[in-house]
Here is the input.
Amino acid sequence: MLAWTIYVSFFGVVALMLAPRDNARAVRWVALASALAGLGIALASLVHLPNGPFEPLVKLPWIAALGSDYFLGADGISRVLALLTGVVAVAGVLFSWNIEHRVREFFAFYLALVGGVYGVFLSFDLLLLFVFYELAIIPKYFLIAIWGSTRKEYGAMKLALYSFLGSGMVLVGLIAAFVMSGEKTTNLFLLAQQPFPQSFQLWAFPLTFLGFAILAGLWPFHTWAPTGHVAAPTAASMLLAGVVMKLGAYGCLRVAMTLFPHGLDPWGFAVLGFGSWRDVFAVLAVIGIVYGASVALVQSDFKFVIGYSSVSHMGFVLTGLLTLQTTGLSGAVLQMFSHGVIAGLLFAVVGRMVYERTHTRDLAQLEGMGLGRAMPFAAVTFTVASVASMGLPGFSGFVAELQILLGAWQAFPALALAAGVGVVIGVAFILRALQKAFLGGGDAAGARGDFATGAGTMASISLPERLGSALLIGASLAVGLYPRCLLDPIVSALSTPLFHELLKGSVP
Amino acid sequence: MSYPHLLGLAAPETILALTALAVLAVDLAVLQDLDLRLRRLIGAMFAGAGCLAAVAWMLALPEAGDWGHGMLIVDPLTRLVKGGLVALAVLAILLSIESDFTPHVGEYYAVLLLAAVGMMFLASSADILMIFLSLELTSLSLYILTAFNKRNRVATEAALKYFLFGGVAAAFTLFGLSLLYGVAGSTNLEDIARVAGARAIQVVTSENGVATRILDPLLIAAIVMTVIGFGFKVAVVPFHLWAPDTYQGAPIPTAAFIASGSKLASFFVFSKVMLVGFAGAEGSGAWLSLRPGWVAVLAVLAAASMVWGNLAAIRQRSVRRLLAYSAIAHSGYMLLAVMTRGPEALASLLYYAFTYALTAVGAFGVVAAVQGPAAEEGLSDFAGLARRAPVMSLCLMVFLLSLAGIPPLAGFFGKFFLFTAVLRGSHGLSDNLWLVILAIAMSTVSLYYYLQVLKQVFVREPSGPTDAVEVSVAAQAVLVVLAVAVVALGCAPGLLLRPLLNALAAASW
Here is the structure.
C-alpha cells in the first residue's frame, strides 16, 4: 500500500504533462490531489501499523546480473518519514497556489521530487535507493533555477553539484561494499550482515557517511543549504529544508551506519583528541549547531535566518545519530520530522506570506513596515513557528531535542553542553527575527506606501495559505502533545536486527 | 574452407555492400532530376532496407563459424555487436534525411554503408591483418563522409585534420601490428598470445646476481604503437585533437556515426586485441605501483582522458564541441573496462558503448533538428528551447542526463556496471580503485556542463525568435523512440545485459 505514495506522485507528473498548458486551475488541483493521496496513504499506513515490524511491500527481480531487486519496504522510520513527506508536500502545493509562471512544469518537477523522496524512504535495495536518491537532484535544480529568486542560477548549480558530489562519494562506498562482499546482491539486509573487515569499514564508512551528510548540511559542507534555500521558490525551500535534507540524514542512518557499523569504532590512536570517525563527525555536527545558530543571529536577510537555522537544527539530527544509543537515535529521527514540519512553516511565512507581498526580505526594511498589524495571520503563524522552533514544550521540537541532548549527555557530555549553548542561541536568533519582522515599529498604513508592488495594498492571506499553515502547525502540535505516536514506531524499528550491530558494541 | 560457407558467414556484410552499389546505381540512373529531399528519402529507404535485410539475415539464419583461422568469426557475440552497428547505421541514415549538405545523395549513402561494412568486419575478425584492413575501410569511408559538405570551409578543415591525424595513426597501428607479427610469426591473435605471452616477461640477471623481470622491449614497442593507433580511433587524450573539430565541422549524421558506430566497433576490437593479443603483458595500473605493461599505459590514458575531456568541455561554447569533449571523457571511462579481463567487464564495456552510442546519436539528432546543418552554434542558440520545441527539449534532457549518469537512465547503469566490473575484475579492490574514484569525481564535473546546456534550454528565455521550431514528424519520431529506449534501458538494463552475458558465455574468448 505504502508503495503507492511513489506511484501517485509519478502519476501526477504524467497527468500534468498531459494536462492543457494554460489551465492553471486544473494543474493545481491535479497536483494537490496527487500530494493529498500520498499524505493519505502515508497516514493510513502509520495508523494501521503503529508498532508494526518491517513490512515488505514489493519485491520483484530487477537486474539479475547484479542481484538487484525492486525491493520496497517500510519499517517505523520509513513510515514516519513518509508521513513527513506527505505533510510537507501537501503544504508546499498549498503555498504555491499563486504560481502562474509555467505552472504546469513547476508542479511536474515538484511532484517528481516528491516521488523520488518517497522512493528513498521506502527502498531496501541499495541500488534502488541510490536511483531514487539521485532522481531527486535534477528537479531541485530546475525548481530553483527557473522559479527562484536571489542568485537563483548560482544557488541551483551549487546545490546540484554538492548533491551530485555527495552521491558520488556514496556511490564509491556502495560499489566498494558490493564488490567486497563478493556476493551478487544489493539487498540492504543481506549486505548489512556481511562481516566487512574493519580496515575496509574504516575508510568506506566516512566516505559514505560524509556523502550523505553533505545533503544533511554537515558543517563545513553546508554552504549549499543557505544559498539554495534562499534562492528557491517557497515550495521548493519547504521541500528542500523539510524533506530533502532528511534524505541525507536518513542515508547516514539507514545506509552508512548499518552497512559499516564498525567504521565508528576507535582507530586505536588519537589525533588532536579525535579517536574515531564518530568523534570527528560528532564534533562537526555540534559545530554546525552552534555555527548555524550564530550566523543566523546576524543575518540581515530574513530568509537567510531560516536557511542557517536549518543548518543548526540538522546539526541536532546528526548529533543524535552519532550518540549510537536508542534515546539519541530515536530523538534524531523525531527531530527529522519535527524540523521538517517547522522549517516548512518558517519558509512558508518568509517566502510566501511576507516576501511575495512586500518584495523585500531585508529585516531592516521589514522592521519599518509594521507587518504585525498589516498581516496579523502571518505574525501569529510565525510566532507559533518560532515557539516551535525554539523547542518549547507542547511542540514536536521539544521532545526531539530533549532526547538528543539526553543521549548526547551520556555519549559525549562536553559536546552536549555545547549543543545546549546552541539551543540558547537558537532562541535568540528566532526571537530577533520575530521582533524585527513583525513586532517592529512603523504603522501599516504608512508602510503600504513603500511597497514596490504598484498595487498599493497587500493582498490578504489566502485560504490555501491558511490551510497549509494549519496543517503544519497541527502536525507539530500533535507530535508535541502525543510524541508516542511517532516515537513508538521509531523505537520499534530501531530494535530490529538491522540496527543490532550498530547499537550493540558501541556504547562507551 | 569453402566459398559457399564463407558467403554464408559474410552474408550480412555482403548484403550491405550490394545495397551500397544499388543505392549508387539507382541514384545515378533514375533520381538525378528529382528534388533533393525526395532523392534523400528514396536513397535512405534503399539503404535502410538493405540494413533491415542484413539484420533479418542474422536473425533468421544464425550461422556460427570461424573462417580462415580467425579471419572471419561469427558467433552470438559478434552477431549481437554487428546488429548494434547496423542499428546505429540506420539511425545515421534516418538523421541524414533532413540534413541538406550535399547534392551527392547516392554517394553519401553508399559510403556510409561501406563504413558500416568495415565496422562489421572489424567486429568479426580475430586476425591482425583483417583487423587492419577493416579498420582502414572504416576510416577511409569516415574521412569521405566528413568531407561531404564541400561548400563549408569548417567541414573541409575538419575532414583534412581527421584524415591527417588518422593517416598517421594508421601508420602507427600498422607498425605496431607488424612488430607483433615479427614477435609471434602469426597474424592470428590467439597464436600471437601463445607465443608472445610466453616471452613477454624476461628475467634479466645483472652482474651482481639480482634478477629483474622486464617486459620484452620489442613487445613494449608493439604495445605503444598499437595503443596509439587505437587511441586515435576512440579519441583518448592525447590522441584526441581531431575530435572537437570533426564533431563540429562534419555533417551531423556523419558526426553522429563517428561518435556511435565507430566508437562501438573500435572499442570492441581494441579490447579484443589487447586482451587476447597482448595477454601476458598486462602489467598493472595500480596507484603508485604502475608495472610496465599495456594496462599501465591504458590506466594513464584513461585518467588523462577523464580529466582533460571533462575540464575542457566546461570551456566550450559550441554544443557540438562540448559533445566532442564529453565523448573524450566517455572514452576514458570505457578504457577502464578494456583494462579488465573477464566476461563481466566486456559485457559492461559493450553495454556502455552501445548506450553511449544511442545517447550520442540522440543528442546530435536534437542539435540537427533544432539548428539545421549550420556548423557554428553557440550555447545561447538553445536559449528558451523548451518553449519553442518542448518535445525535443525533453528528449535532449534525457540524452544529456544519461550522458551525465543520472539514474534511472541508461548512462547511469552503464557507469555502474562498468565500475563494479572493473573493481571485481582487478586483483584486489584497491588496484583500480583510484581510477574509479577519479571517474566518479569527474562525472560530477560533467554534470556541470550538461546542466549548462539544459539551463539554456529550460531556464533562459528565448533570445532570438520565439516561434515554434519546425521539426519534421519523422525526425521527432526517431528522437522520441531513442529517448524512450534510453529510459527503458535504464529502468530495465537486463533487456540488453542479459543477451550480452548469454552471448559472452558462448564466445570463444
Notes: The first strand of chain A starts at residue 55 and ends at 63.
